[in-house]
Design goal:
This protein has 15 helices and no strands. It is mostly helical. Helix 3 runs antiparallel to helix 4, helix 7 runs antiparallel to helix 8 and helix 12 runs parallel beside helix 14. It holds the Pfam family NnrS. This is Short-chain dehydrogenase.
Length: 404
């Protein structure tokens, strides 16, 4: 086939990105995750262009949860649900419409103005509501109950988003803070569900690259233990339980995530990057939940660093792990993880260490603008992933590209 004919038949970038959710939303998530903390901590000095009723710190939390992690959820759900159910995936205009709604919310989040809260509320509520509707529709068509857990967590995320955005619009700081806290726990519950889904096939592929056997089988009773206990902890928060009671619920949820770490001990293969990154996500999420419980029981530190360990560490590393692993298999590639992906993991862990340990009194605060170095390492992590994976995601699958 001549170069001219091949070029004429080559799909455009829009067609390639619109072919599958992760191709569009994973790069958007990585860019937002890299740039927002830099703007927040380094460029704007923990401020926003406009002073409104909502403190800039809550806008920061909003943008990380519904912006960076929100795009990751969009990419994962629109890719994984069709794969799990053998159904037609969302493509083209549907994906770009979701991306437009997500993007409108992010532009609004850059200003911090009260009027921007209305714009963000409309746009974000639309895509947050669309996800559970989409999953419910697929479940109904396929007559399956396998997606009930995902549907419940996505519905909870949509409710949290509605509460947060309503609070932003009316300027209710206390309710907005509570809603953001709940949204973080919902995303953590989704993380536990995703880790339970992907850890088993990843572990089996590491142990047997030929995929001729399934040498690793998890204990079925513990498969959904972590998201289940996170749900109980979230229910306790909504019910307004005392700090002591809620502390033990968080400790139980943390122990469940640590139990997932124990399941990663599969011999020498535990030192493979593909295993370590998934185990590391559970480790930081579990350790952070334990620290939240300890803080509520009177430990000598605030909840803030503990929550950063949960969300920035556990959830952030989990998102990066999904980016790295799914980004290979959905572009026709396989293990091992590229060196740049392993570097991204190391940079992200370094960012979490610099952000969390000084506030826990374990490390001295780094010199310079507070949290600037952590923001730089965090940005470098996602940009390192994007640099190596963008050529994979922006071109046809390997086997398709090789066909003449």
């Amino acid at each position: 086939m001549t170069d001219a004919i091949r070029a004429a038949r080559a799909p455009t970038l829009a067609v390639i990105l619109g072919d599958e959710g992760l191709r569009l939303f994973f790069p958007l998530s990585a860019l937002h995750a890299a740039l927002w903390p830099l703007l927040w901590a380094v460029v704007n000095g923990f401020a926003l262009p406009f002073d409104g009723a909502i403190p800039p710190g809550l806008w920061h939390a909003h943008e990380m949860l519904f912006g960076s992690f929100g795009a990751a959820v969009l990419g994962f759900i629109t890719t994984a649900i069709p794969e799990w159910t053998d159904s037609r995936r969302l493509q083209g205009r549907a994906l770009f419409a979701l991306a437009a709604l997500w993007g409108i919310g992010r532009v609004a989040g850059l200003t911090g103005a009260d009027g921007a809260a209305v714009v963000a509320a409309v746009a974000d509520t639309a895509w947050l509501a669309a996800l559970p509707v989409y999953v419910a529709a697929v479940s109904w068509r396929k007559r399956t109950v396998r997606l009930v857990g995902v549907l419940l967590w996505l519905s909870a995320l949509a409710v949290c988003g509605a509460v947060v955005h309503a609070a932003f619009v009316i300027g209710d700081v206390e309710r907005a803070q509570a809603g953001l806290h709940a949204a973080g726990l919902v995303l953590l519950g989704l993380l536990g569900l995703v880790l339970a889904r992907i850890s088993v096939p990843v572990t089996n592929l590491v142990l047997d690259p030929s995929q001729g056997s399934s040498p690793y089988r998890p204990h079925p009773g513990r498969l959904n233990l972590a998201p289940g206990l996170v749900a109980i902890a979230l229910a306790g928060e909504i019910a307004g339980l005392s700090p002591a009671v809620s502390a033990y619920l968080f400790i139980a949820a943390g122990a469940a995530f640590l139990d997932r770490v124990a399941e990663s001990f599969i011999g020498r293969a535990v030192f493979r990057a593909e295993i370590l990154v998934l185990a590391g996500s559970s480790l930081m999420a579990g350790a952070g939940l334990l620290l939240v419980g300890a803080s509520r029981l009177g430990a000598g530190f605030a909840e803030t660093p503990a929550l950063h360990l949960v969300l920035m560490g556990g959830l952030g590393l989990g998102v990066l792990a999904v980016f790295a692993i799914a980004g290979l298999f959905h572009t026709g590639r396989t293990f091992p993880l590229p060196a740049a992906a392993r570097l991204a993991v190391a940079l992200l862990i370094g960012a979490v260490v610099l952000r969390v340990l000084p506030e826990l009194g374990v490390l001295p605060a780094p010199p310079g603008l507070p949290h600037a170095l952590a923001a730089l390492l965090w940005a470098a992590a996602f940009l390192s992933w994007l640099k190596v994976y963008w050529p994979f995601l922006s071109r046809p699958r390997v086997e398709e590209a090789a066909v003449c």
